[in-house]
Amino acid sequence: NPYKIEVGEQVNAVTSYLDLSQIYASDFERMRKVRSFNGGRLKVDIKNILPLENGKYFSGDSRAMQTPFLAIIHSLFVRNHNNIADKLGSLNRHWSEEKLFQEARKINVAIYQKFIYEEWLELFVGSESADELKFSEYDINADASTLNEFSTAAFRIFHAFMPTKMEIRDEN
User: Fold this and answer.
1) pLDDT of 122-155, one tens digit each?
2) Over the Cα atoms of the chain, what is R_g?
3) CA distance 172 to 170
4) Rounded distance, CA 84 to CA 107, Å?
5) What are phi and psi of 56, to 5 degrees?
6) What spatial distance separates the first Cα and last Cα of the chain, rounded to whole Å?
7) Among candidate residues 48, 108, 101, 26, the one with its CA nearest the CA of residue 57
């Protein structure tokens, strides 16, 4: 039927996994743009924060500049990745640039997941619900995609957590 109306679905720019795709990107083209290809590191500017592209901070997710707080969080995870890559590189001088990048990425993602499951989740849903979620059995057949209802309505609750003010200080 040429007049049949299909239900539209929104497209999510990042993966729905806790994989730090907001830092590393969800596609290889953008991932190549965030990498320095030097010692397994991600690109940073001379102040060790996210690099600028067309006057905006650039990260794995195009929304890194949506709020200053997102840019700060992105910068912290990028710095952490680079710190891990530097330490791994000094311990494993025989590792390739790719191996350093991937191993630093794995460790950084593990730190992020630990933070989400052991600190943030409990604050958000309460300790009893968090325990149920943390200790539920992994289901390989579960659909991990983001529901339209969640991305357009429920996920907006996180906007309420954004601070309304930010103190800016100089280096002193």
Assistant:
1) 888 888 888 887 777 778 898 888 777 777 776 6
2) 19
3) 5
4) 8
5) -125, 150
6) 68
7) 48
